[in-house]
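Let us begin with a simple case.
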Amino acid sequence: MHLIPAAVVFSAIFVAFPIAARAQNYPWCSNFHDGAGTNCGFSTYEQCMATARGTGGYCAPNNSYVAPHAAAPVGAAKRKLRPHRRRKL
């Protein structure tokens, strides 16, 4: 019996506090001619134009785009750097 009210309370809390949406991190934005807004969810210019052409819009680079960081090569942290040797004159 107590399970149903608990589920209702949990559902109400879950709906009341929505999770923040993550920004789209893609390099191309489609700007729609019909005033429908902007969609910055395209990896390539060609993808963007395939969507924009149908509305008479255009594509532009995403000014907020942040390229993902490259992963360090495996074993890079294990390598030891040799000390710098001074040349004798």
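The second case is a distinct protein. As before, the sequence precedes its structure tokens.
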Amino acid sequence: MAKQIFSTKQKHPLGKRRCAFCTSQIEEIDYKDVKTLKHFLNGFQKIKNRYYSGVCLQHQKQLARSVKRARHMALVPFTN
């Protein structure tokens, strides 16, 4: 198994971190897909920042809208 080389300024292996939704070619984020949405929430059920989640601006906006809809429909809790 090859070693992963990390840059001093980056926490991810060589190169830029890519948006998870862009790489899998997802155009619309579905609010009913709770498993995916929970990946982008922290321990206090707050939406992670783009810096930590690694998604692009367009998908971050869609993600926030989907999480808010899922909370309203009681699929995702507002808090713990």
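The chain has four helices and no strands. The two ends are 39 Å apart (CA to CA).
Keep these points in mind for the review questions at the end of the chapter.
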